[in-house]
Amino acid sequence: MKILLIGPPGVGKGTQANLICKEYKLKHISTGDILRKYALYKNRIGKEILNSRIDSGKFVSDELVNNIVNNLKCEKVLNQPYLLDGYPRTLFQAEFYINNILSKDDKYLVIYLSTSNEYILNRISNRLTCINCGRIYNLQNDLPKIYGKCDICKGQLRVRSDDKINIFKERLEIYYKMTFKLVEYFRKLDVLYKIDASYGIDEIFGQVKRVIGEYYDLY
Ligand code: AMP
83 near 29, Cβ under 8 Å? Predict the structure, then answer.
């Protein structure tokens, strides 16, 4: 099973990604998580990521992120069933993925989580992320058991710097400029399923499971 999860920032991709990966035993690959980890390295790649200012939502170069995904392929990480979260984000990345990462007969599914900007801005102002494992919480409908602490790893919960509202609006703009075209691109390839993400976590996950079940003939 190969799933790509796309949608605007703040729509709930991380939350659904965690649920999907647990349900279908998929490897969760988030290019954002990988880049945040690499940004701590004091080498050329670490510097390039810092210079790209990912904490303010700017994209790293297609070349860098394609190389990262290609390395995952070379290291056979992509030989197992996986979900890609945050990649591809540009047409160039999508073409690279199809032409260089996938094999000819690979079957893949693109799940597109869609909702209004109002919903996203409301959601984002209530979002907390674990600085250790990346688990996302929501102050309105997905609280941690202990205030400020992650249920899974007991890491500290913080507002991600790129979730601050002005930076977030900029991320949303970049999404519409760079990533939104992928919706049409994958629709034409007949691999895209759009899901209305304006509901609660469980309802959205219910829709996601229906789509995956039908696409992969699990019933
Ligand atoms: P995310 O955790 O997916 O929101 O990613 C955090 C940040 O990492 C993004 O705002 C971008 O700056 C960068 N990033 C993640 N994935 C990509 C990608 N596929 N292409 C370019 N930049 C990316």
Answer: yes
